[in-house]
Amino acid sequence: MVAVLEKVINKLFARKLQYVYFSLIFLFVSCGKTTKEEVQTNKDSAFVKSDRFYELKETFNQEDVPVNEYLTDLLKPIRTNFKRINSITDWTFIGTEELWETTEGGEAIYYYQNEQLEKIITRHYGETFQLLTEYYLQNEKLSFVFEKQLIYNRPFYYDTIAMIKNVDTEAFDFDKSEIIEDRSYFKNGKLLHQINNQDCGALFASNYLLEEQKRIQTDFDILITLRRK
What are the residue ranges of helices labelled H in the chain? Predict the structure, then answer.
């Protein structure tokens, strides 16, 4: 369909192959899928009301907690920087750029503190998903990337009429949306570790991490070229 959606699909497929492979070798705790139904009692924790009914909420004043991993000490400075940046409330400058990589468009938001670019947020909207990506910098390089994908059960325009016409059992229902989260940790331009809320604790092969590193770094480099400041 569109470039961003293709990336989402390819990424999930590649991760699934890695998951199957390592489940035969390592014993780990699976976090399981997170759905909107599971946060219905505290909707504001994950979503914010918008013209698009609800959209994923940007991270604010949150810590990144270690989960079933062996790199805790190495990742601690990255987590500290993440908490520092996402707790800033008074930015020196905030710039925006429109993005049109998906059918419903999107935007990139650049956050500066004392002339230093600290964070970039991108939002992409599609017929069947939302994608919120948060890039956190340290010394002008990638430090931490938090990707949140909201996958709809059906396209947002798929109403009961379309359901009946297609002999389907479901129409679009935002409450049945699924949240997929990826957390990527960088040091000196290298992706050290990645955690997914569907398989946290899993260990991924170096070639998979290298491909993810290339994907994320490429997207980040494009965003850097788009900024006006």
Answer: 3-23, 72-86, 160-165, 206-226
Measure the CA–CA gap between 210 and 178, rounded to whole angstroms: 27
CA dist., res. 77 & res. 109, Å (int): 24
Q: How confident is the model at residue 206 (pLDDT cuts 50, 70, 90)?
A: confident
**Could you give the CA distance from residue 46 to residue 102 in angstroms, rounded to a whole number?**
22
Q: Which pTM was predicted? A: 0.82
Number of domains within the chain? 1
Residues 6+ apart with CB under 8 A from 29: 68, 200, 201
Letter string b/e over residues 131-156, b meaning 16 or more CB atoms within 10 A of that residue's CB:
bbbbbbbbeeebbbbbbbbbbbbbeb
Q: How far apart, in whole angstroms, are the C-alpha atoms of residue 150 and residue 135?
A: 18
Count the alpha carbons within 13 Å of 85 in the hemisphere toward its beta carbon.
31
Dihedral angle sign, alpha carbons of residues 39, 109, 146, 124: positive
What digits encode the pLDDT tens for the residues 95-141?
Answer: 999 998 777 789 999 999 999 999 999 999 999 999 999 999 999 89
* Residue range of the domain that includes 115: 3-226
> What's the confidence (pLDDT) of residue 174?
87
Q: In percent, how much of the chain has pLDDT > 70?
A: 74
